[in-house]
Design brief:
Blueprint lengths: L15 E5 L10 E4 L5 E4 L1 H8 L7 H12 L5 H12 L12 H4 L51 E8 L1 H11 L5 H21 L2 H10 L3 H27 L6 E6 L2 E6 L9 H29 L2 H17 L7 H10 L5 H10 L8 H4 L3 H53 L2 H13 L2 H28 L10 E4 L7 E4 L47 H4 L10 H9 L10 H13 L7 E6 L7 H15 L4 E6 L18 H7 L6 H4 L4 E2 L6 E3 L13 H12 L4 E6 L6 H8 L3 E6 L3 H16 L3 H5 L2 E7 L7 H9 L4 E6 L2 H4 L11 H15 L15
Parallel strand pairs: 9-13, 9-14, 10-12, 10-13, 14-15, 15-16
Antiparallel strand pairs: 1-2, 2-3, 4-5, 5-6, 7-8, 11-12
Length: about 850
C-alpha cells in the first residue's frame, strides 16, 4: 500500500479508545486502545490523539489540522501519513484499505510486524478482564499472517460466552447498589457475624463424617461452589458498573487445562485507581455476601453439604487475595501501583539487577515508587512461585502414580455403578475420572510451555549473534513537530508495546532519506590504508579496566579475594556514575545559570551555593557564583571570606583585570570544592544599587575567566538589574518552598517570563522545590506536575539541618539524601548544556 491511497483513513472495526490510563505508575502517560481481537494496546498521547480524530470521512489534511490544534504542535500531512503507515496500521488500529476485506476488520495484515501488545488481564483464576468491542465477533482469518498477539503462558484459552454483554450489564445494574458504602459495611458485618456463629455452633467434623458416609453429596457441594463462582463473576461486573464503566460478557475458558470463568471488565481501565481496585475486589466481596447467605440457609436446614461449601467458599476468597498467578490479589497490586503487566516486568527487573548491565527500558519507564513496589513484588512472589513449581516437579512422579491408582479405582466404581444403575454413582465416577488427571496435565502443559519459550529464547539469542548483512540504501524517515527536537525513525518501524513511544517523538514536515553505501560495482575499490602511529591508541594497546565496587558487601568480596572476584559496582554506584557523567558534560565556551525566586526565604541562595559546590567539586573547570542581589545578599557569608572586595569593586577595576590571578583578588574560594564567590556590596552607606548595564559588564568580565557563572539574584523581578541579567542568561533555576504561596509565586514568575519574551528560558528551566520535610497538606505531586509541564524538569531538595543554620556549608556536611538530591539537580541542569544557550568563547588566562 502507498501513502497516497490513504485519503480518508478509518479505524479498524472493533477498535475502542479507552483513554488515559489513570493512576499510572509510568513516568510518561499511557493511553489505552482495545482491538477487536481482544488485545489492549498501550500508545503514546500523540498516537491516541491521531486515532481519536480518524472517522473514515476526514481527509489527511483535516485530521492533521485537528491533531495539531489538540496536541499543541504542528503536524503536517507527511508526518500524519508516516504515523498511519508505520505505527497505527501495523498495530491494527487503522484499517488497511489496500488489502482484502479481512484486513479491514483489524485482524490479518500481510506486513504485520512482530510485537508484544499487552494481554487482557484476568481478574482471577476463574475471572478475567477481557477487552470488549463494539462490533460482533470477527470470523477466523484465513491469512497466513496475523496481527501481532500476545501469548502469555498463563492465558485463558478456548473461551465461550455464558452470559452475553446485555444480560451481564442488566445484572450488573441490579447488583451495583451492593457497593454503596453503608451496604458494604452491613455486608462485612454480616460476614463477621456469620463466621462467629459458625465457629460457635456448627460442627465441621459431623459434616465431614456425613459426607464420607454419603459420597454423592459431593455433587451438591460442587453445585453450590459452581453457583458461588458465578456470583463471584457478578461481583466483578457489578463493581465495574458501580464505578461508571460498562462490563462485557461473562464466559468460561480453559486456564492451563483447568476450567475457569472470566468477566469482561476492560472498560474499568477508564476508571481511576480506586475504581479499578474496587472491580478487582468485587468478586471477593460477593464471596463474602455468599457466605453470609449460605450461613442463613444452613441455620434453616443444617445441611452438611452447605457447611462444607461454606468452608470452600472461604478458602476460595482467601486464595483470590494472594498476589500470585492470575488471582484477584495480583490485579489489586497491579492496579494500586499502576503497572498492568507485572509478569512482563519480571525478566527486565532481573536483567537490570545483574551487576554491570544497564537498566532495562521496561524498568526505566516506571516511576521510582512503582519500580520499588514492582521489584519487591518480584523479590517476594518470584521465589514463592519458583519454589511451588520446583515442589510440583519433585512430587510429579509420586502424584502421577497416585492419580493412576485413583483413576483405576474410579473406573472400577464406574463399572459397579453402571451394573447397579446408580445414577449418582455414575455421575460422581465420571467427574472423578475427568478431574483427577487435570493437575498432572496442567503441570505437563506448564513445563512444555516453559521449554518452548526457553527454546525460542535460545534461537533468538543465536540469531542475534550471527552477523547480519548491511542493508544498502535503506531509507529513513525523519519527522519533527514544530517546537520539538527532531527525532529519526526507520520508515518501517513500529511503536514498541506495551511501552508508549516518547511524547517528544512527534511528526511533521521533513522526509529526508539517508543515503546508503554505494552499490555501483564499477567503482574502483578503496586503497588499503598503510599502518601508521594513529592506530596505536589506548583502546588498542591497553586492557580494559573492570569497574570495581566502592563500598558495601561488593567491595568486601572484591577486597577479600584480592580482586579475583569482582561483583561489579552496585546499582546505586552505577547510577551515581551516570549522574557524574551528566554533571561533567562539556561546555563550549561559557555558561550563565541564573537562580531565580520572587519569594523571600525560598532557599535561592542555598540552592546557588550547593549547586556551585556540586559543579565545582565534580568538574575540572572554573566555577564562580555572583551575588547579584542588589539588597546586600548573603551568598559570600556561606563560605570562608578571603576577599573584602565586592562586585562594585570588581566593576570599578574591570578595565585593569586581564588575568585570572588578578580577578582572584575579588573572589573568595571554598578550600574544598574550589567554588569561587563574588560578594555583593553590603556597605550601609551605599544608596544607589547597580543597574542593568553594570551587571552585564560584571558577567562579561567573569566570562573571560570562568567556564560557568552562577548568578544569585534578588527577589524583585521588575528591578532593572535582574532584567539585564535575564537577557544574558543561558539557563534558569526557579526555586520555591514547599508551600502554596511559594508555588503560586513561582508560577507567576514563569508567566511573567513568558509574557516578556523569555519563553525559551522557561522551557529549559529547572524547577526546585526546596527544603521538603515529610508530608503535609500540600499535594507536592500536583505541584510538580504543573511545573513539569512548563519546565525541563522538577526536583525536590529535602530539608537538612546544616542548611537551615545559614552558616558555612559544605557538601560533606549534608545528609546523604540531600547530597544526592543536589547531584540530581546538577545533572538536570547539565542536561541543558548541549541543547540551549549561547556559545561564547571566553578569554581565559
Amino acid at each position: 500500500m502507498t501513502n497516497s491511497t490513504l485519503v480518508a483513513p478509518a479505524l479498524a472495526p472493533g477498535i475502542g479508545l479507552l483513554g488515559e490510563y489513570q493512576g499510572s505508575g509510568f513516568t510518561e502517560p499511557h493511553y489505552l486502545i482495545v482491538r477487536a481481537d481482544q488485545q489492549v494496546l498501550h500508545v503514546s498521547r500523540l498516537l491516541f490523539v491521531v486515532a481519536s480524530h480518524i472517522d473514515g470521512r476526514s481527509s489527511l489534511d483535516e485530521i492533521a489540522g485537528r491533531v495539531s490544534d489538540e496536541y499543541g504542535r504542528t503536524l503536517d500531512r507527511d508526518g500524519l501519513q508516516f504515523l498511519l503507515s508505520a505505527k497505527l496500521q501495523p498495530m491494527g488500529i487503522v484499517a488497511d484499505v489496500s488489502t482484502d476485506d479481512r484486513a479491514s476488520v483489524g485482524l490479518p495484515l500481510t506486513t504485520a510486524p512482530t510485537l508484544t501488545p499487552e494481554r487482557p488481564k484476568p481478574t482471577s483464576v476463574n475471572a478475567s478482564r477481557t477487552p470488549t468491542s463494539r462490533t460482533p465477533a470477527v470470523p477466523p482469518p484465513t491469512s497466513s499472517r496475523l496481527l501481532p498477539r500476545a501469548n502469555p503462558l498463563l492465558a485463558l484459552r478456548f473461551r465461550l460466552t455464558l452470559v452475553p454483554p446485555p444480560a451481564t450489564r442488566l445484572l450488573a445494574r441490579l447488583f451495583a447498589p451492593f457497593f454503596f458504602g453503608p451496604v458494604v459495611v452491613l455486608g462485612l458485618i454480616g460476614l463477621v457475624l456469620a463466621d462467629v456463629w459458625l465457629f460457635r455452633e456448627a460442627s465441621l467434623r459431623s459434616a465431614v463424617e456425613a459426607f464420607l458416609s454419603d459420597p454423592p453429596m459431593l455433587l451438591s457441594i460442587l453445585g453450590i461452589l459452581l453457583a458461588s463462582t458465578l456470583v463471584h463473576e457478578f461481583g466483578h461486573a457489578a463493581a465495574c458498573r458501580y464505578g461508571g464503566a460498562q462490563p462485557g460478557k461473562i464466559g468460561a475458558a480453559v486456564f492451563l487445562v483447568f476450567p475457569a470463568f472470566f468477566t469482561d471488565v476492560t472498560q474499568s481501565y477508564r476508571l481511576g485507581r480506586a475504581g479499578r481496585v474496587r472491580t478487582d475486589l468485587g468478586g471477593v466481596y460477593f464471596n463474602a455476601l455468599t457466605i453470609a447467605a449460605l450461613t442463613v440457609f444452613y441455620v434453616q436446614t443444617r445441611s452438611a453439604a452447605v457447611l462444607i461449601a461454606i468452608v470452600f467458599v472461604h478458602a476460595e476468597a482467601l486464595q483470590q487475595l494472594w498476589p500470585l498467578g492470575r488471582l484477584d490479589g495480583y490485579f489489586v497490586v497491579a492496579d494500586l501501583v499502576g503497572v498492568p503487566d507485572l509478569f512482563g516486568r519480571i525478566g527486565p527487573i532481573l536483567r537490570s539487577s545483574v551487576p554491570g548491565r544497564p537498566t532495562h527500558p521496561k524498568v526505566a519507564e516506571l516511576r521510582r515508587s512503582a519500580r520499588i513496589i514492582v521489584t519487591l513484588w518480584v523479590a517476594v512472589t518470584g521465589p514463592i512461585m519458583v519454589g511451588l513449581f520446583a515442589l510440583m516437579l519433585w512430587n510429579a512422579p509420586s502424584v502421577t502414580l497416585q492419580v493412576l491408582d485413583s483413576m483405576r479405582d474410579q473406573w472400577a466404581a464406574l463399572q459397579s455403578s453402571i451394573d447397579e444403575s446408580d445414577a449418582a454413582g455414575i455421575t460422581l465416577a465420571v467427574l472423578s475420572l475427568v478431574l483427577l488427571p487435570l493437575p498432572v496435565l496442567g503441570l505437563a502443559w506448564l513445563v512444555g510451555g516453559i521449554l518452548r519459550r526457553l527454546l525460542a529464547a535460545i534461537v533468538r539469542l543465536v540469531g542475534r549473534r550471527r552477523p547480519r548483512p548491511q542493508s544498502v540504501g535503506a531509507p529513513t524517515k525523519e519527522i519533527t513537530m514544530s517546537g520539538s527536537d527532531p527525532a529519526t525513525h526507520l520508515s518501517g518501524a513500529v511503536a514498541s508495546l506495551p511501552a508508549p513511544e516518547p511524547s517528544g517523538v512527534t511528526s511533521s514536515a521533513a522526509a529526508a532519506p539517508t543515503p546508503g553505501p554505494s552499490s555501483d560495482t564499477g567503482a574502483a575499490p578503496d586503497p588499503v590504508p598503510a599502518h601508521s602511529a594513529a592506530e596505536l591508541t589506548e583502546r588498542f594497546l591497553l586492557r580494559a579496566q573492570p569497574h570495581t565496587p566502592r563500598g558495601g558487601w561488593r567491595r568486601g568480596v572484591f577486597a577479600v579475594t584480592g580482586g579475583n572476584l569482582n561483583p561489579g559496582p552496585s546499582r546505586r554506584e552505577r547510577r551515581e556514575d551516570d549522574l557524574l557523567a551528566r554533571v561533567r558534560t562539556r561546555i563550549d565556551g561559557t555558561r550563565r545559570i541564573v537562580v531565580l525566586s520572587r519569594k523571600g526565604g525560598a532557599g535561592k541562595t542555598t540552592t546557588t551555593l550547593m549547586l556551585g559546590h556540586t559543579f565545582a567539586t565534580h568538574r575540572g573547570d572554573r566555577v564562580v557564583a555572583l551575588d547579584a542581589n542588589p539588597d546586600a545578599g548573603s551568598l559570600a557569608m556561606r563560605l570562608p571570606r578571603e576577599s573584602q572586595y565586592s562586585a562594585t569593586d570588581l566593576l570599578a577595576e574591570r578595565a585593569w583585570v586581564d588575568r585570572y590571578s588578578q580577578i582572584r583578588a575579588f573572589t573568595s574560594q571554598d578550600p574544598v570544592s574550589r567554588l569561587e564567590v563574588v560578594a555583593s556590596d553590603d556597605d550601609p552607606r551605599i544608596s544607589l544599587a547597580l543597574g542593568s548595564q553594570d551587571y552585564r559588564d560584571l558577567v562579561d568580565t567573569l566570562d573571560r575567566h570562568y567556564n560557568m557563572v552562577l548568578v544569585d539574584t534578588g527577589t524583585g523581578i521588575l528591578d532593572d538589574a535582574i532584567r539585564g541579567i535575564l537577557e544574558e542568561a543561558d539557563q534558569l533555576v526557579v526555586v520555591m518552598p514547599p508551600a502554596l504561596d511559594g508555588g503560586r509565586v513561582a508560577a507567576m514568575t514563569l508567566d511573567w517570563l513568558d509574557q516578556h519574551g523569555h519563553g525559551e528560558l522557561v522551557a529549559g528551566a529547572v524547577a526546585v522545590v526546596n527544603s521538603v520535610r515529610g508530608s503535609g497538606p500540600l499535594e507536592l505531586d500536583r505541584l510538580e506536575e504543573h511545573f513539569r509541564s512548563r519546565c525541563a524538569s522538577v526536583h525536590r531538595i529535602p530539608w537538612d539541618p546544616v542548611l537551615e543554620a545559614g552558616a558555612h556549608s559544605a557538601l560533606a556536611d549534608l545528609r546523604p539524601a540531600t547530597r544526592a538530591a543536589y547531584l540530581e539537580l546538577a545533572g538536570a541542569v547539565a542536561d541543558g548544556f548541549a541543547t540551549s544557550g549561547r556559545a561564547r568563547i571566553g578569554g581565559q588566562s
